[in-house]
Structures are given as C-alpha cells and as structure tokens.
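Exercise: predict the fold of this chain.
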Amino acid sequence: MSNYFRDEVNQLSSYQKIPDPNAVAKNLGLHRVAKLDTNEIYYPPLPGVAEAVQAELGKLHYYPDMTNALVVDALSHHYGLISEGLCVGDGSAALIEAIVKGVTCSGYDEVVYSWRSFEAYPLIATMAGAKPIPVPRAADHGHDLAGVLKAITPATRVIIICNPSNPTGAYMPLREIETFLASVSPSVLVVLDEAYREFIHPRPHFDTLPLASRVKNLIILRSFSKAWGLAGLRVGWSYSSPDLARGIQKCILPFSVSRIGQAAAVAALSQEEEMRRRAAEIAAERDALLAMVRLHTPEVPYSQGNFIWLPIGDLAAAFGYEAEQRGFIVRAFAGEGIRVTVGTAEQNADFVAAYPNVLQAIGFR
C-alpha cells in the first residue's frame, strides 16, 4: 500500500488481468482456447477500416486533431445530430471519467449506479474523489429503477445506467427510460451508457438520441469498441445538450484519440449495413446459446448484449476455473456469476457441449 495515494484509492481492487489464450493453451496442453471474457466481437475490422488505418501510418509523427472534427462531422451526418452536442473520447469509459471528474468536487458528492454493472463506474467515482453509491439489481437481474430513485440524495451529482446492461444483458425500453428521466431532478446528471445497443434484437423502432435534445440533464454514450469492432483503438462518443457538451469537452484530455482511432471510426461509420448484419448474426448466436444453456440452468436471464449472464453466485470462481481447464476463458465475478461472451458458432457449440460437465464439476445443484 502506497503512502502517496489517497486511502480510498489504495483500497480499490486492481482491474482483473485479461488472460492470454495462447499462454493458457500452452500451460494446459490444449490445442485451442476460446476467449469468451471481454465482449469483443469475433469479426475482423469492417471493410475500409484497415485501409484508413494504413493511410495514417506515415503521419504518426504528427499529433491527432484535438477536436476530433472529422469524427464529429461523420457522427453528425450519420445520425442527424447537431455537432455542438457531440463529444469524442478514447472510449466511453474515458468520457464517463471526464463527466464525473467535471461535476464532482468532494467526498460528499455521490455517483449512483445500478450494480453489478461495468466495473469502471465505482473506480471512476472513487478516483474523482466522489462517493460511489451502488444500487443492487432487481430480482430479475434488471435495473431497480425505483431503488435508484430512492438512492438519490441532495449530494447526488450523477446517475449512471448501462442499457443494455453489462454483465447481465438486461434492457430497458424507451417508455421505462422516459418515465425514469421524468422522475429525476434536473440538477442531477443522468448518463445512459449504450455501448451494447447495436446487439438489441429485434432492432428497436426508436432511438434514444433525440431524448438528449429534450432532456437537458441527459448524456447518452455510445462506443466503437463493440459492434463497430474497434476495441483495440478506443473510440467512444457522447451526445447531449450543447451546454453539457461544452463542459464535457473541457474535461477531455487533449489529443486523447489517436490519428488511427479517428480515421478508423470515420471509415467504420460508412459501413453501417455490414455492421448491422454482423450484429444480427451475433444476436442470433446469442439467442441460440441462451436456449441451450437454459436447458440446464433455466434461471439464466435473457440478454440483449453480445454476452450471457450465468447467475451462479458463490460457484462463479470454481466455474471460471473449470471452464478454463476445458479451453474456455470466461469472466467470473466472484460470489455473483459468470459472463460469457458470444463467440463463433463453433466456439458456442463447444461451450454448450462442455457446459453440463462444468456444472457437474463444481457441484451445481
């Protein structure tokens, strides 16, 4: 423990190390290992992305555009949004960090979020010097929005809601979102993290982005890391009122999105039809995986992400170990459950075949 860092920082758990599948295969003497732990997609970059990246390689001695103007312009035209409401950062987590750091100022300020959820939320709140306020999920693994509203105090500055939710895959339709927003004081910022939106199936007939034009305390986050296939480049964006966007922009570190990341994001946006096709295929694989897993564990909730959630409680760590021994790296949340990323059809079939054996090995039921 370091004397240089604040006590609350010293008490934080380190982010879980991501296993190297090649190292795992070598150590266990396995022919192959399926990496199903970090919600990456199995497709290569969208058409045109590699070429856009290649074109930037000869310019790496120049700083990137600190305003991300080409990305902002592409997003504005693609979604029909006003550019003054857009901000771009090196991943949506970096934008959450900018927002929380920009609006919290002491250990008395509170950041409320549904939990279990994205691990960055409590880390960001703590590093900003704010107080994290986790609200336990509902019995169906969805958001307990009534509980979130009850958790609001005069010290609440930010509420973060992930939709679809990581790691359970729970999804809130538009009506629930609108009802919730109407119940939150305009003095409290609401951050709607939609990193997994593209995997919702059937595709929703509405978009939440227009809400940000009407609800002045709402910030909507999207990511290029998931369905758009740019996890290795870290590009995310937010949409809000111009007033909020100006504040967010001041809190984003200059030059945080690389030249390569900006070029790749612009190129990816021109391939929405292909992205949608891929996302639909992943959603179909997810639904098939869910159906097979539910034959053995019917309590597994429906997911609208590119992953499924196995709520096995105290057996999670043992499940993670036994799955790895059989060639599957999954994400174990000790004492809570397992998140399994949707893989290729072959990987999913192999996982389904091994699933009963893993359950038996850990003494499930």
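Check your answer against the key: DSSP finds 14 helices and eleven strands in the chain.
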